[in-house]
Amino acid sequence: MSERNMEEKVEQATNSKNVSLPMSRVRLIMKSSPDVSCINQDALFLTTKATELFVQHLALSSYKNGSGKETNTLSYSDLANAAEETETFQFLTDILPKKILARDYLKSLEEMEKDDDNL
């Protein structure tokens, strides 16, 4: 699938009045907030559509800047890199952290402990 093909599909989805995400699930998530008492159908539709468009934007941005162009895939590391490197997605760095090996993490902990001992 070419990049132009994907952008055309995103454009069609943007202009469509249909949604791919289940509105019942979005309603459940919205109702989980103690601040929400009732949900208007229009507000539910707009929230669902906005969420869908955000996920498409994140996926497309991650794919364009990711390593899976040759194999036509999108990986977790592509999403994590987009969250870390793109200012728009900086708020996702806690949700999509870069994966590190356990031995690398333990090594960095040891170095931090050494630094603390030197102070």
UniProtKB/TrEMBL annotation:
Keyword Methyltransferase: no
An example Gene Ontology molecular-function term: nucleotidyltransferase activity
Keyword DNA-binding: yes
Highest rank taxon of the organism: Eukaryota
UniProt record, GO biological process: chromatin remodeling; DNA-templated DNA replication
Cellular component, GO annotation: CHRAC
Keywords: Acetylation, Coiled coil, DNA-binding, Nucleotidyltransferase, Nucleus, Phosphoprotein, Transferase
Matching InterPro entries: CBFA_NFYB_domain (IPR003958), Histone-fold (IPR009072), Transcr_DNA_Rep_Reg (IPR050568)
Subcellular location: Nucleus
Subunit structure: Heterodimer with POLE3; binds to DNA. Component of the CHRAC ISWI chromatin remodeling complex at least composed of SMARCA5/SNF2H, BAZ1A/ACF1, CHRAC1 and POLE3; the complex preferentially binds DNA through the CHRAC1-POLE3 heterodimer and possesses ATP-dependent nucleosome-remodeling activity. Within the complex, the heterodimer with POLE3 interacts with SMARCA5/SNF2H; the interaction is direct and enhances nucleosome sliding activity by the SMARCA5/SNF2H and BAZ1A/ACF1 interaction. Within the complex, the heterodimer with POLE3 interacts with BAZ1A/ACF1; the interactions are direct.
Protein purpose: Forms a complex with DNA polymerase epsilon subunit POLE3 and binds naked DNA, which is then incorporated into chromatin, aided by the nucleosome remodeling activity of ISWI/SNF2H and ACF1. Does not enhance nucleosome sliding activity of the ACF-5 ISWI chromatin remodeling complex.
Name by which UniProt lists this protein: Chromatin accessibility complex protein 1
Organism for this UniProt entry: Cirrhinus molitorella
Organismal lineage: Eukaryota, Metazoa, Chordata, Craniata, Vertebrata
